[in-house]
Automatic annotation (TrEMBL):
Gene3D superfamilies: Alkaline Phosphatase, subunit A (3.40.720.10). Transmembrane segments: none annotated. The keyword Hydrolase applies. The keyword Translocase does not apply. It catalyses: a phosphate monoester + H2O = an alcohol + phosphate. Residues 1-22 form the signal peptide. GO terms for molecular function: acid phosphatase activity. It comes from Yarrowia lipolytica (strain CLIB 122 / E 150) (Yeast). PANTHER family: ACID PHOSPHATASE PHOA (AFU_ORTHOLOGUE AFUA_1G03570), NON-SPECIFIC PHOSPHOLIPASE C4-RELATED. Its EC number is 3.1.3.2. This is acid phosphatase. The lineage of its organism: Eukaryota, Fungi, Dikarya, Ascomycota, Saccharomycotina. GO terms for biological process: phospholipid catabolic process.
Length: 459
């Protein structure tokens, strides 16, 4: 026990006060993260029964994007993300279907998930932070927390999700199981945007949250949104099966699409995994870029730049000249071929994966309510020279308590996502991220929270 305490204390201290990646990232916590956190908010789960689901399905409407003009990007016009589950890099690399797909794309050999388990990784992929989430239970992010959807809307770029077997468009329930045997089928924890009130409380946005029936219809109708997040069910994504199933599913799902010229036109697809299976290894996952936007000479190549899930948001920002969220997206690297195409406005960081683990969640609101939601970095310049979304800055300046908390967790390596990715520290060291004057205080608060957690562990 004593060893655990010392290890955790030094980890938090290192994360809080040492700039840079690599060496500072060693995470030596060996206990169960859940036992650390007690002051968590209680959010009632939504579990409608079948009759309620059927009634709601009857009135659900799905949005069409046909009338929207395609907004041209600098390196691609559409960005489609497909996420599989819980697989170590090498296991994915060795799977025949995935191996075959690598011939048509760019394999990212240093792409990192942010933590364990699933839910915080999905939350982070669209919101730029995981806000201390360390489990898979029912969570909602308050309306004041913005996502990539707000960034895309700022330039009228269409976006949507396709979640296999979600029972109807805009469904917000915790799960929808296979009704014959109640096996896991659709699960909310793998649906990133539905966890944000800033999405679900705007009724017109619910029409963008669709299932695979709608996906196939939208492919056929040439009605896909420009940005999409695609999640197969718990069988096909490998969660309840294995890499043979998810790899084969991926090959079979993608093969016809990769032959479809309408689908492929100026499209960038990323096929990746939410996290590794083995918690004691580096959280480095297989990630493959595919699609018509991949330059012919780069097909079948690898890119060893260090990326993480926030790179998806940063790349989309660079491509369409979008503002940022003031969170982990600010300093995440942009995919190299995109950065190369765009040129000097993109400044990627040369960081090493050495010692980068990202294998447990730093504290934040969902593990300790008193930490609040970190204040977005309103003065920061993003990786592509971009500034914060003005609506976020306005909210912060208005003193809105949800986003103007006294917590800087996440920005200065003290708690949540940004530092878990290691990139905030690098940017801070380079001087491109403004320092919040409460940084030192927050570090102490956070360290205190972690130690309180350890005390709980000892009891
Ligand atoms: C965190 O904030 C403290 C106090 O402002 C500062 O001394 C330290 O350099 C910061 N660390 C990083 C990684 O930015
Ligand atoms: C993270 O990885 C390190 C190094 O293998 C290991 O010691 C630690 O137990 C892991 N942490 C968790 C929470 O699994
Ligand atoms: C998918 O969503 C549509 C639109 O709400 C619905 O009509 C359909 O039944 C759903 N498909 C499945 C397989 O649940
Ligand atoms: C959700 O999962 C639980 C537990 O397996 C099951 O009892 C329930 O019927 C599921 N809900 C739906 C709508 O499928
Ligand atoms: C997952 O989807 C596939 C079809 O893609 C279906 O055959 C399978 O039964 C589904 N799994 C569950 C547990 O419902
Ligand atoms: C895709 O096209 C290739 C080459 O034309 C062909 O060999 C392959 O069978 C096609 N795949 C599918 C799924 O249509
Ligand atoms: C990145 O930094 C490493 C040393 O940390 C160096 O060996 C390598 O050449 C650098 N790469 C680039 C592209 O600058
Ligand atoms: C952001 O910049 C403005 C104007 O320079 C300054 O007044 C404000 O204190 C800065 N805010 C933060 C959080 O650094
Ligand atoms: C914060 O902003 C949101 C969105 O504009 C608003 O609904 C909420 O009432 C505000 N809360 C406070 C405490 O100002
Ligand atoms: C932050 O605010 C909370 C409640 O609003 C308070 O309990 C806590 O002491 C404050 N922390 C600091 C470092 O000011």
């Amino acid at each position: 026990m004593k060893l655990t305490v010392l290890a955790l204390a030094s980890t938090v201290a290192a994360a809080g006060f040492t700039p840079g990646l690599g060496e500072t990232q060693t995470q030596a916590f060996t206990g169960n993260t859940k036992t650390l956190y007690t002051n968590t908010p209680v959010i009632p789960s939504q579990t409608p029964d079948l009759a309620e689901i059927k009634a709601a399905a009857a009135t659900a409407t799905s949005n069409s994007f046909k009338s929207k003009k395609t907004v041209k990007g600098k390196a691609f016009d559409r960005y489609h993300q497909i996420w599989l589950e819980n697989t170590d890099y090498q296991k994915a690399f060795d799977q025949a279907g995935l191996k075959a797909l690598t011939k048509q794309g760019i394999l990212l050999t240093n792409y990192f998930a942010l933590t364990h388990p699933s839910e915080p990784n999905y939350v982070a992929a669209v919101g730029g932070d995981y806000f201390g989430i360390f489990d898979d239970i029912y969570r909602t992010l308050p309306e004041e927390i913005f996502t990539v959807a707000d960034l895309l809307d700022s330039k009228s770029i269409s976006w949507g999700e396709y979640q296999e077997h979600q029972p109807y468009t805009g469904f917000q329930g915790f799960n929808y199981s296979r009704q014959t045997d109640y096996a896991n089928d659709y699960v909310r924890k793998h649906n990133p945007l539905v966890m944000y009130d800033s999405v679900t409380k705007k009724p017109e946005r619910l029409g963008n949250l669709k299932n695979f029936t709608e996906f196939h219809k939208d492919v056929a109708d040439k009605d896909l949104p420009q940005w999409a997040f695609i999640t197969p069910n718990m069988t096909n994504d490998g969660h309840d099966t294995d890499i043979e199933v998810s790899g084969t599913w991926s090959y079979n799902f993608l093969s016809p699409l990769l032959n479809n010229t309408d689908f492929m036109k100026d499209n960038l697809i990323i096929l990746t995994f939410d996290e590794t299976e083995t918690y004691t290894e580096q959280n480095r996952v297989f990630a493959l870029l595919l699609g018509g936007a991949i330059p012919e000479n780069l097909k079948g190549t690898t890119d060893d730049t260090v990326y993480n899930h926030y790179s998806n948001i940063a790349t989309v920002q660079a491509n369409w000249g979008l503002p940022h969220l003031g969170r982990g997206d600010v300093t995440a690297n942009v995919f190299k071929f995109v950065a190369d195409k765009i040129g000097s406005s993109v400044t990627n960081h040369n960081i090493t994966e050495h010692g980068l683990y990202n294998n447990f969640s730093y504290p934040g609101y969902f593990s300790d309510k008193s930490l609040g939601f970190p204040t977005p970095l309103i003065n920061a310049t993003g990786t592509s020279g971009n500034k914060i979304l003005p609506a976020i800055a306005d909210l912060v300046k208005s003193g809105n308590s949800s986003v103007a908390s006294n917590s800087t967790a996440g920005h200065n390596g003290t708690a949540t996502g940004a530092k878990a990715s290691g990139s905030a520290g690098v940017a801070a060291a380079k001087g491109s991220v403004s320092h919040n004057k409460n940084g030192a205080e927050a570090a102490v608060v956070s360290l205190g929270a972690a130690l309180v957690g350890v005390a709980a562990l000892l009891l």
